[in-house]
Design goal:
CATH topology: Rossmann fold
CATH architecture: 3-Layer(aba) Sandwich
Shape: globular
CATH superfamily: NAD(P)-binding Rossmann-like Domain
CATH class: Alpha Beta
Helix content: 25-40%
Distance between the termini: 27 Å
Strand order of the largest sheet: 3-2-1-4-5
Number of domains: 1
Structural class: alpha/beta
Largest sheet: 5 strands, parallel
Number of helices: 5
Length: 174
C-alpha cells in the first residue's frame, strides 16, 4: 500500500483501490483486517477512493455485513478509534455471497467492480485471500478465467495470500 516514510518525509496515502476479501465474513476479517484498516484511516494512509467487498458463503446482505463489521470494530479495534473512522469504513463495506468455486461469484464480482469504478473513482483492485490454503489456487484460477486480474488502462490488480503454505510447521512449503 503506502510507501514507508523516508526520514523527514511524511508517508503518502495509498493509491485508491477496492479491497476484495475472499473469506470476508470470517474471523480474520473482523479481528485483524478491518481494525488494521481503521488504523490506516486514522494515520491518513487510506484515500477517499477506497472500498471493501467481502465475499463468503455466509448468507447475508450488505446491511448485515456492515453490522458485522461495525461489531468487529467495537470488539477488536483500538478503543481510541474515532466514531468518524468507524462510520467511514463501515459505509464503504459491501458484501457478495458466493462460493469460491462458482463462476457466477466472479461474474457478480466483475459487475460490482465495474460499478464501483464510478462510485469510488478507482479501477484498481486487491484480492485478499483470507481462506484456507486449499482455496488459493481455485480462487486465483477463477479470477483469471473471469478476467479480473488483467491490468488495463492504467488500473492495477494484486492478489495477496494471507496464510503460509502448508498445514502445520512440519508441512513442506509447496
Amino acid at each position: 500500500m503506502a510507501e514507508p516514510a523516508a526520514k523527514g518525509r511524511a508517508a503518502r496515502p495509498a493509491d485508491g483501490c477496492i479491497l476484495v476479501i475472499f473469506g470476508g465474513a470470517g474471523d480474520l476479517t473482523k479481528r485483524l483486517l478491518i481494525p488494521a484498516l481503521c488504523n490506516l484511516i486514522e494515520s491518513g494512509l487510506l484515500p477517499e477512493q477506497f472500498a471493501v467487498v467481502g465475499i463468503a458463503r455466509t448468507a447475508m446482505d450488505t446491511a448485515a455485513y456492515r453490522r458485522m463489521i461495525e461489531g468487529g470494530i467495537g470488539e477488536f479495534a483500538n478503543a481510541a478509534i474515532k466514531p468518524a473512522t468507524k462510520r467511514w469504513i463501515t459505509e464503504r463495506c459491501h458484501y457478495s455471497q458466493g462460493s469460491f468455486d462458482d463462476p457466477a461469484t466472479y461474474e457478480k464480482l466483475r459487475d460490482m467492480l465495474g460499478g464501483f469504478a464510478a462510485t469510488y473513482g478507482t479501477r484498481n483492485a486487491i484480492f485478499y485471500l483470507a481462506t484456507p490454503p486449499d482455496a488459493f489456487a481455485p480462487i486465483v484460477r477463477r479470477l483469471g478465467k473471469a478476467g479480473l486480474v488483467e491490468e488495463s488502462e492504467g488500473a492495477w490488480r494484486r492478489v495477496i495470500i494471507e496464510k503460509p503454505f502448508g498445514h502445520d510447521l512440519e508441512s513442506p512449503a509447496s
